[in-house]
Amino acid sequence: MTRTELTIAGVGGQGSILAGTVLGSAAVTYDGKYAVQTQAYSSELRGGYAATWVVVSDEPVVFPRVTRPDILMAQAQDSINRFSHTLKPDGILIVDSDMVPTPPDNIGHIFRIPATSIARNRLKAPVTANIIMLGALCRVRRVVSREALEKAIVDAVSKEQEQLNLDAFNLGFEAVREPMD
Amino acid sequence: MGRGKKIMTGTHFMMGNLACAEGAIAAGCEFVSGYPITPASEVVNRLAKRLPEVGGIFLQTEDEIAAICSAIGASWAGQKALTATSGPGISLMQENIGFAVATETPLVIVDVQRLGPSTGAPSVGLAGDMVQVARGSHGDYQIVALCPESPQEMFDLTVRAFHLAEKYRVPVFLLADAFVGHMREQVIIPEEKQLEIESRKIPKGGNDPMDRQDFLSVDVAPMPVFGRGFKAHVTSSCHDEHGMRNLSDPEVMHRYISRPIDKILNHRDDIIQVEADYSGASIVLVSYGTVGRSARAAAHLAQAQGLRTGNVRLITCWPFPDREIRQVAESVDFIVVLENNRGQLYPYIKAEAAHACRIELLGPETLGQIHDPEYILARIREMIK
Predict the structure, then answer these.
(1) Which one of B194, B216, B251 terminates a domain?
(2) Residue A122: per-residue pLDDT
(3) For chain A, what are the domain ranges?
C-alpha cells in the first residue's frame, strides 16, 4: 500500500494550505500520482487555525480524509496541540522550531527546522517559511519528487517571486541533516 | 490558467467548486447570477472571472432571491442559466424554485451544502438539504438532483445537470457539500466533442398562443424565447395546454400538477444514475455524495475480512431511485444506509427496502465529517452480531 497521509497546520497567514496545495499539485501534475487535498480554517483572516490534509498515493484515492497521518508538518504550537495526537505511532513530525518551542517528546521522529528565522534572516522574506518547510519535507521523505515540487512551486507563485521561493525550498532541503530515506 | 478558453481540456489538480464552474462553462452556460456564501463562493467567483472571457454574463445580485429570479429570467431569454449557493440561500430561493418548476424553466442550481440548521457552521459540509431541494417549495412537483463524490464529478455532473435541465425543462440541483466543494483532486476535462449536452428545443414563430397545445407536455414542449417572435403566455399559476391561465377547471388543475411530474417520472430511466457493485453480497452499503467514498473503502475492508459486502451509490437522488433500491433489497439480507446527517433519505430508502431485508441507518461518528471506514466496519460487526 502506497498511501501516505499528511497534515500541514499552522495559523492563518503562514501559508499552510498553500503548502498542501503545492504538494498535491506536484504529485498529480508532475509525478503521475494521485492526491486529494482538503482543508479547514477558522473565520479569522490571520491568527486563527489553518490546516490542510493531503493524501498521496500511487493508486486512485478512495477514502479522502486523513485520519492517522504519517507526517505532521506543524508551523505553530497550536498545531501540535490540535493534531500531534493523530500522528501514527512511528509518524514523522516536522516543526518550525521558531514557532513550536516545545514539541512533544513521545513522537517517532522529530525534525526541527528553524524555518521562520531562515526565511527572515537569509531571505528577508518571512512569508517563505511554508516553502522552506516543504523543502525540509522533501528531504525527510520523498512523498513527491524534488523536481515535481519545484515545478509546482513555480506554478503557484508569480514570476517575480519564483527564484525567491525556489531558494526557500532549497534552504529547507539543506536544513535537514539526517534524512530518513 | 485557461484564460479565454471555453473548455480547459486536460488534467488538473483542481478544487471541486472550480471544477463545477468549469463544467458550467463547458456545458455552454451563458448566464450566472449569485450572492456570495461560504462554502459556495468559489463557484461564483470563478464564473464572475470566466464568463466575460467566453462571452457570457455574470450578475452579482443583492440577495439569493434576486439571484434565482435573474437566472429564471435569463433562461426565458434563451440562455443556459445557473445560480450557486448553500443551504441558507436555498431556503430563500424556495418560493422561486416552485416558480421555475411551474413554468418548466431549465435551470441549474448548485447547492454546496453546509452544516445547519440556520447559519450553522459555514465551512463544514453536511448533507442537510437532501429533502429541502425536492420538497421545500409548496405544492406537488418533481425536480432532479445529482450528488457528486469528487471534484471530477463536480465537473461531470454540472455538465449533466445542464443536459438534463435543458432536455426536460426542469430545475436541476447539483447537491455538493463543503467537503467536496473545497477538495482538490485530479480533474480530467475532456474534449468538447466528448461531452453529452442537449439544448432545449425552440418553437418556430407564431402569433396566436391558442395555435399551440404543447404546454405541459409529458414529452417536453419546445420552449419559446422572449423576443424571438413567438407569442406565448407564461404563468406560474395554473395553466392549460396553451399556456393560458385557468383557475376554474379541476381537470386543468389536475393536468397542471400531474404532467410536469410525469414528464420527469416517465423519463426516470434516462435521468437516474446509480453506481451499483453488490453481486454476491449479503450486506450492501447505500450512500450518496462524499460518503460514497467512505462506503467504498469500508466495503473493501469488509471484503478483506470475509464479509460479503457491496455498495450502492445514488448519483441521482431525485427523482428518487425507488426501483433500484427495491432491486437491491430483494437480493441481499441487510442494507446499511450511510448519510452525513441524521437520516434524510433514510425514510425514502427504508420505504422501498423494509419489505425485503433488514435495513439500518448509520451516521458518521462526528456529524460533518464523513464516516471513517474502520468505524463503519466496526459498527456493522456489532449490528450483525
Answers:
(1) B194
(2) 96
(3) 4-174
CATH of the domain at B52: 3.40.50.970
The per-residue pLDDT of chain B, averaged, comes to 95
Output the pLDDT for position B4: 61
Question: Between A34, A36, A41, which is nearest B183 by CB?
Answer: A36
Shortest Cα–Cα distance, B342 to chain A (Å): 20
B211: CB partners within 8 A, 6+ apart: none
State the smallest CA–CA distance between residue B284 and chain A in angstroms: 17
Place of cell 423576443: B227
Nearest to A115 by CA among A100, A132, A135: A132
Domain enclosing residue B375, as ranges: 274-383
Distance CA(B307)–CA(A13), nearest Å, equals 47
Instruction: State the CATH class of domain A4-174.
Output: alpha beta
DSSP letter at B245 equals: B
**Together in a domain, B182 and B299:** no
Which residue numbers of A have CB closer than 8 Å to B's CBs? Answer: 21, 24-25, 27-29, 34-41, 43, 61-65, 67
Handedness of CA A179, A162, A79, A52 (dihedral sign): negative
For residue A36, the Cα-to-chain-centroid distance in whole angstroms is 14
Residues B146 and B32 in one domain: yes
Q: What percent of chain B has pLDDT over 90?
A: 88
B interface with A, Cβ–Cβ below 8 Å: 11-13, 122-124, 150, 179, 182-186, 290, 293-294, 296-297, 300, 369-370, 372-374
Would the CA dihedral through B47, B368, B12, B189 be positive or negative? negative
Q: How far is B259 from chain A (nearest CA, A)?
A: 41
Looking at the structure, do residues B37 and B184 belong to the same domain, yes or no?
Answer: yes
Number of domains into which chain B is organized: 2
Indicate the pTM of the whole model: 0.95
